[in-house]
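seq:
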Amino acid sequence: MSTFRDVFGHEPQATASAPGRVNLLGEHTDYQGGFVLPTAIPQRTTVSLGRNDSGEHVLHSANSHTTLRVPVGEVGTGFAPYLTGCLNLSGVQEGLDVHVYGTVPSGGLSSSASLEVATLRALRELYGLELDDVALALRGVQVEHQFVGVKCGVMDQMASSLADTRTMLLIDTRTLARRAVPFPAGAEVLVIDSGVPRRLAESGYNERRAQVEEASRLLGVKELRDVQDITLVETLPPVLRERARHVVGENARVLAALQADAPAFGRLMNASHASLQGDYAVSHPRVDELVALLQAHPDVFGARMTGAGFGGAVVALVREGRAVAVADDVLSGYGHEGRRVVP
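struct:
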C-alpha cells in the first residue's frame, strides 16, 4: 500500500481514523426519530492531510490507486464529494493533499461515514476545530445531504464517531441521547459481506425516506417515532402502509432487545429481516439466501441484513466462540462471493 509520503513526497500534518459500524437492530428508523442499536467494527478508514500551497486539493485513494484533483471550494466527482464536502463545510480555503486508506468493506458497514468521520477528525487536528464528537458526526450527515446526495439519518456517523467494539450503542436519534448496552450473554456478533455491491445514491434509499415522510404527514405526526399503536398504520394507502409498519415495528424491536437474552434477541433480528425484506423492500435475493443459511444454522440465534440494503452485508448473533466456524459452514454453502468480515 502506498503511504502519504510515497504519493506526495512529504509527511502529513494530521492523521486520524474512524471505524465502520454494524447495526444489530433499528434499520431505516434514524430518519424518523427512532431508536438504533449499532456497534463499531474493527475495520477502519485512515485519512492523512497536509498543506500543498496550491489552489487545489489532491485526493489519493490507496485502495483504488486513484488520484483526483479538485479546485479549492469545488466538489469534484467519484469519491471526492465525501472529502471535499468535509473540507468545504469546515471552511478550508487552502489546497490540501489527502491520502485515504480503508479496510471497511463497502455496503452496509458505513464505509462512507467512516471516511467522513476520519476526515473531520484529521481536520479537527490540523486546524484545531472546536467540534465535539457529536457535532463532528452531524457535520458528516450534512456532507451526505449536501454533497453526496443521500438523505441519510444520523446513525452511521454517530456510530462511527462514538461507538466501540465492546458494546452496542443505543441511540435515540431524535434527542441524540445514547448509552452503551452489553451484548447478550453467551453470544457474539458475526458479520458477512454478501458480495453484492450497492450504491445508496442510485438506489431506492431517498425514495423510502420520502415515503415514510408522507406516511407521517398522513398520520398527523412529526415522525413515525410518535406512533405507539402499530394498528394505526393500517389506515394508510398501500406501500405507505407497509413502509410505516416496518419503521414502527422496528422501533419496538429495538426497545424489546434491551431486555432480551440471546435467543430472544435473535428472534427480533429474524423479524427485522422479514420486515426489511417484505414491508420495506430493501433486501436482495442473495442477501436473503445468506440470511436464510445463517438462520438455519444451529449455532445462530438470529440474522438479518444490515445497513440501507439493496445488497451489502448481513449480521448474525451466534453462540459465543462459534462465529468463525459458523461463517465457514455458511459460506461453503452460499456459492457467491461472500466473505467473513467480523470477527
